[in-house]
Design a protein that fits this description.
There is one protein chain. With about 450 residues, this protein is mostly beta strands. The protein has 1 helix and 35 strands. The strands form 9 sheets. The protein has a 4-stranded antiparallel beta sheet, with no helix packed on it. A hairpin with a 6-residue loop joins strand 28 and strand 29.
């Protein structure tokens, strides 16, 4: 599992968006008749014209705050921006070095351009990522021997540094992974988020696999040996050798296992059909077997059930009952399913702005259409998320806030002179002419 990367990001067909001349027109709260949609479209079209006129008159929308940070020379590390609901964190090199050396970390408030604090940090190499987790700013540095550095987000106070990359975080804990020189052993260690104090550590041969799933961590060997540990304490919860069906994977091949929803799924065959056998993590007891091809499908916890999405060119999703493995419903329109709070969302094919819809979890029926947007798939605690949509052939990007619980999408404004925009849970970050970085926030965060 890689840092900050949602499981199951899959590539799909390119969607032809056409020319966007007005803000995207969004459907109403329910699926009405065609006549009602036409009438609604006419009203929204008029509103869109008013919005476009307002945008042309002022570069800053009432609902959107903007900050721009200068560019840097080409040989210097590119600045890294992390955003939370209450601040921006800018990490940049001091001088022209692109390797080990000092980096400056600056925190800005949402509504102001004056730094709240600024500190210098010595790093083992370029900083290639930053995340704010439970009030702690984590910097990911180095390339061949990565390190994680922790600063207190409120005031920039240095907390700790350790070897390894962030694998999973939550409830004051952080799981780091690192590879020993020579690449023969991988080390996993759990540390306290605010102090860096090691809770426990485990070294495994690089030919084995480790799969974290929130409170549990599974160590798997190609001989079918499984060991389940508690992430917080490192204690072994259960272990055993599991059946891989009539024909298991060959030693040294892909692991053929996934962890989702408190279950360990093991790939195998039933005759000429690929299947997955589910085992409970606490006792490694066999639960069920279903027609799931773990080499081309990804399984994720989806509320109280399981979601299956295609990989390697396969499309379509399925909702499975977690207790039985039976398919509750399937739909080829969606590439991924994800929950925003208690609301199930379906995401269309990527790359490009994907169709996003609110779905009924029991039947898969579409309830509301939230439009076509590129999102981070990272959901804010209140269930809302930001989306972007760039006009083809231009440097204009529309920014919207999606509220799945209310079945609505609100266009916040337009980012001009902006390309390569990426939507995070709290802000949108874009590249600007000359290498500058622009960041756009919903104004509600400054209240």
């Amino acid at each position: 599992m890689s840092v900050g990367q949602p499981r199951r990001a899959a590539a799909g067909a390119v969607i032809d968006l056409g020319a966007v001349r007005d803000p995207p027109v969004l459907p109403g709260r329910s699926l009405a008749s065609r006549l009602e949609r036409w009438r609604t479209a006419a009203v929204l079209g008029a509103a869109a014209a008013v919005l476009a006129t307002a945008v042309a008159a002022s570069p800053v929308r009432v609902a959107l705050l903007e900050q721009t940070f200068p560019g840097v020379p080409a040989r210097t590390d590119q600045p890294i921006v992390a955003a939370s609901a209450d601040g921006l964190y800018l990490v940049r090199a001091r001088g022209a070095q692109a390797g080990p050396g000092e980096r400056t970390v600056i925190r800005y408030g949402v509504a102001g351009a004056v730094p709240a604090w600024q500190v210098s940090v010595l790093t083992s190499g370029a900083v290639y990522g930053a995340n704010v987790v439970e009030g702690t700013l984590l910097l990911h540095t180095g390339e061949f021997q990565p390190q994680t550095i922790a600063l207190r987000a409120a005031d920039g106070r240095f907390l700790w540094r350790r070897s390894g990359s962030w694998v999973q975080a939550g409830a004051g804990e952080l799981l780091l992974s690192s590879r020993a020189p020579g690449g023969r052993m991988d080390t996993y260690q759990a540390v306290a988020l605010t102090t860096g104090q090691a809770r426990w550590a485990m070294s495994v041969p690089s030919g084995e696999w480790v799969l974290p799933d929130r409170s549990r961590l599974v160590r798997w060997s190609d001989r079918g040996r499984a060991e389940v540990r508690d992430v917080r304490t490192g204690a072994v919860v259960s272990s055993g050798t599991l059946s891989r069906g009539e024909n298991g994977a060959a030693p040294g091949s892909a692991p053929g296992v996934q962890v989702a929803g408190g279950l360990l799924l093991v790939a195998g065959w039933a005759g000429d059909r690929p299947v997955a056998t589910a085992y409970g993590l606490d006792r490694l007891d066999r639960r069920w077997q279903a027609d799931i091809d773990l080499s081309s499908e990804a399984v994720d916890g989806c509320g109280a059930e399981l979601c299956v999405s295609g990989r390697k060119g396969r499309s379509g999703v399925r909702m499975l009952e977690r207790d039985t493995g039976r398919t509750r419903w399937a739909d080829d329109r969606w590439e991924q399913l994800s929950y925003a709070g208690s609301t199930l969302l379906g995401f269309g094919k990527a790359p490009g702005p994907a169709q996003i819809a609110v779905l009924d979890a029991n039947s898969g029926r579409q309830i509301a259409d939230l439009g076509r947007w590129e999102t981070s798939r990272s959901i804010a605690p209140d269930g809302r998320m930001l989306g972007v949509r760039t006009e083809p052939g231009t440097s204009r990007t529309w920014i919207a806030e999606l509220d799945p619980a209310a079945w609505t999408t609100r266009v916040l404004g337009v980012a001009r002179d902006a390309v390569g925009c990426q939507a995070g849970p709290a802000a949108v970050t874009c590249r600007r002419t000359g290498g500058a970085i622009g960041v756009w926030y919903p104004r509600r965060f400054a209240a």
